[in-house]
Design goal:
This protein is α/β, with parallel strands linked by helices. Among the domains are: about 100-140 and about 325-370, no CATH class; about 145-320, 3-Layer(aba) Sandwich (Rossmann fold), CATH 3.40.50. The protein has helices at about 10-55, 60-65, 160-175, 200-210, 220-230, 255-265, 285-295, 305-320; strands spanning about 100-110, 125, 130, 135-140, 145-150, 180-185, 190-195, 235-245, 265-275, 300-305, 325-330, 340-345, 360-365, 365-370. The chain is globular, with a radius of gyration of 49 Å.
């Protein structure tokens, strides 16, 4: 019989069994929910990753656009489209400074009269024997003239000095235009530049009146200093020297004088005074030097023993200076530089602009130096 006074309590064994069952059921339900969610999330992540890996890559242009100039290759200049192999390159490279070479040219007939009717096609130009293409051609009657007139006042020329001065005065009055300039030099044992370059004949006349006699002769110094005065002048550059050809006290020699004249592109005209009474004492060596200098610069030499011959020489110089040709060319490329390049200009023998081209005489400077001497 049960004791009804005892407190009623759940049976311990049965209660634990029921509690455990409920807890287990709740736990399984909870974990099953968690597993389903985790699996869903995991499956979603796997599918996203597979899609990312299997998708085609995006084109580069969509991410980093190229500038328009980068879409196509950069064109090369014609001579660089197919670069030569390194073993074909020359072992030595020479730099050539190509500049226009101007050559003032005088053409005369057999009697010495200037010919001014020729055209560009009538000329042939050679440098060191190689034909050159003419780039510039003009008849130079309008180009400014810069003229040095140098008068020998040494003791050996005293008897003819007055005639020389008067002839030089007439030459200046006849040749000068407003665009020209003349500078008067006197030389004996020293060289004096009596006037700067001027077209004012009054200034020249006053300078001629100041000429005074000297003793010795510095001919090569005069040629050198006169060329130096013409070096920076533009247009045609001419030197007229009136002398008996002697040189006794110059500090520079013949080679230095002619190099300076050629670098300055001077055209030298020599008027060699040869009085009959003094012919036995002539300086033949000095005469020959003046003749060669005149030829090498494209000028001319004259002999004069009196006023008529002096005036005739000055008239011929004036006529030639009014009928010169300017011929310019760009030297063909050379593999190496040389100190001096020789120029030769000829009249085409097939020209139709002169009836007998074989009789024509062409004068011009014989060449030019590639590097200055100073």
């Amino acid at each position: 019989m049960a004791n009804r006074f005892l407190p009623r309590c759940p049976v311990p064994g049965k209660s634990r069994q029921n509690s455990s069952s409920r807890v287990l059921a709740l736990g399984m339900n909870f974990f099953s929910r968690i597993s389903v969610r985790a699996a869903a999330h995991a499956l979603t992540a796997v599918l996203w990753l597979c899609g990312l890996l299997l998708a085609p890559p995006a084109p580069a242009q969509s991410s980093v656009p190229r500038p328009p100039s980068a879409q196509t290759s950069v064109p090369r200049p014609p001579d660089a489209q197919q670069p030569a192999a390194s073993d074909e390159q020359p072992s030595t490279t020479f730099k050539v400074n190509v500049k226009l070479v101007n050559v003032f040219t005088t053409v005369t007939d057999a009697g010495g009269a200037p010919i001014s009717s020729l055209k560009q096609d009538d000329f042939e130009v050679f440098e060191d024997g190689n034909p050159q293409q003419i780039a510039v051609f003009h008849r130079e009657s309008e180009l400014p003239l810069s003229i040095v007139v140098a008068i020998d006042t040494s003791l050996s020329t005293h008897g003819d000095e007055k005639l020389e001065l008067e002839s030089a005065r007439r030459f200046a009055h006849a040749i000068l235009r407003p665009i020209d300039g003349l500078s008067l030099f006197q030389f004996s044992e020293i060289v004096d530049q009596l006037t700067p370059f001027t077209a004012d004949v009054r200034v020249i006349d006053r300078a001629i009146n100041r000429v005074r006699p000297g003793a010795a002769t510095a001919l090569y110094d005069t040629l050198y200093l006169g060329s130096d005065a013409l070096m920076q002048r533009r247009g045609r550059k001419v030197m007229v020297v009136i002398t008996d050809g002697g040189d006794t006290v110059s500090k520079v020699n013949y080679q230095e004088a002619i190099r300076e004249a050629q670098e300055a592109e001077v055209i030298l005209y020599s008027i060699i005074i040869v009085p009959i009474e003094n012919s036995a004492g002539r300086d033949i060596g000095g005469e020959h030097a003046l003749i060669q200098l005149s030829r090498d610069t494209g000028g001319k030499y004259f002999y004069a023993s009196g006023i008529q011959q002096l005036d005739a020489a000055f008239r011929q110089i004036s006529d030639e200076l009014r009928t010169q040709y300017l011929i310019g060319y760009y030297p063909a490329k050379r593999l190496s530089d040389s100190d001096f390049r020789r120029i030769d200009i000829k009249v085409n023998p097939a020209t139709k602009d002169y009836p007998n081209p074989s009789e024509l005489v062409v004068r011009h400077r014989t060449g030019y130096y590639t590097m200055p001497s100073k």
